[in-house]
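go over my protein:
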Amino acid sequence: MKNEENLAYFLNEAKSIKAQNFEKKLQIALLGSFTLNGFEETIRVKCNQQKIECRTYVSDYNQYNQDILKKDSKFYQFKPELTFLILDVRHILGELYFHPYSTPVLERKELVATKVNEITNLIKTIIKYSNSRVILTDLQVPTYSPYGISEQNEEFGVKQIVREINTKIRSENKDESLLSILDFNEFIQKYGEENIFSYKQFFSGDMKISIEYIPKFVDEMMRFVNAVVGITKKCIVLDLDNTLWGGIIGEDGFDNIKLGDDPIGRSFVEFQKRLLALNQRGIILAINSKNNFDDAIKVINEHPNMILRENNFGCIKINWNDKVTNLHEIASELNIGLDSFVFFDDDPINREFVKNQLNQVIVVDLPSDSAKFAHVLTEMNVFESLMITEEDAKRKDMYLGQRKRVEFENKIGDFNKFLKQMNIQVLIKKADSFSIPRISQLTLKTNQFNLTTKRYQQDQISSFSDDKNKIVESAQVSDKFGDNGITGVYIVEKKDTEWIIDTFLLSCRIIGRGVEDIMLSQLIERARKENVKKIKGKFIPTIKNKPAENFYKEFGFKEEGDFWIFDTEQTIKKPEHIKMIKNE
């Protein structure tokens, strides 16, 4: 294990963390049924490395029940936003863990129901009194049974008991939007029980995860942290030669590159299959390659073993420009920030150049052995999302449409003529069960055109949508090249004579087409019909929302103190090239 992965490294680093005014902030609570020494320091360091300002609360040894069930506990005073409830199977089952077969089958089944109810009650209590997202570790299925190979013949044996508890907890809480499960059995499968559990450390300090593997376990926890604060990466940018296939197309030729027909070629096929799976769930793929375009595109379109085809890529840069120039152009065409990129390139010189010039980009240190490429990709925790929405699954097609838009714009030349020929339609819809997950996702992830950058979880959006004094609506945008999906959101607080805009945002992929203007203009028109005199909103600047800085001013709002205010009797700016549809 590398030095920077040792627990000692994190314990030392935690002492030197200085107060930072990071944009991302999170209150994290750690509640456990065993010793959690080292967890808190490790998660603070890992958060700090990712520019997350993290405050933590750790329950006293095995005091999680008291913390949760006492309404005035220090846990609730801490006001956690993310709570890890880390339970171990020995503690939950007690003596039944060692000799389950001395208890009648009916009593074992009753115990399962009891334990499921107890754990479910803890989850619901945390959510009710703190509104914190809860991450529950499921219980480890024992690998040992005193009955040995006869365990499988026993009715409701210890392994089945644990599986049943895990299954029923998931089933009975499936509609709880603020609960997620950290699959502890998957963690054990990845690293091995003999590595993760040390009898010596267990006997000396009731540690159920060995100190050598605490940093690895915190990596699993960080998947949820990243998803909650919305710092997941959106786009994988790929070189071609010796990255998506073996060899150099310009030298080896179409028939001699390694792709699928031998052990080396099969490793590139496996890598591409993993990339395709991510692409199908919403991660954008792009190409950044120094190559002859015709040679490279022929492989992509015609090679029989190629998994990724041209339509899988949201942007293609195959030319002789340097990698940094191409990355800037990819960011511009996709209309996303450079901090959304993960860059794969086999050439260490190119990697170092990108690292030095664009520190926002995650540059993957690819090993020289292509057999390890797929493993490197699957071990990355930067693509996590608490929920994969239907919009995510459509993203590949949306960015293919975006590529066609850029080509069409370049062909037309004049931007205004381009907009008029795009046949843009905006459908305004009230929040419902279908759109609420996507609305929450946009508030968590949208940075560039986001006037207040307020982050809301799904249950909060649902609560807002049920409030008669709030408007929660989304904008679904389509044009001649396809459906962009739900890409705009606003949340408005209704007062008698004024409406206050709490949230107004637009996905980066449709900025600059007038969609933001049509959204606001129809909102003001509605306010005018309801005799509302003023629309008020704030612009809260962040490092990333510069594109939205002058939106209110350019629309005609007047600055008064902390607010920008629009008198509804004023002339309303309304784009003529967009057709607006209202769906009540």
Summary: The two ends are 58 Å apart (CA to CA). The chain has three domains: 3-229, 235-379, 413-583.
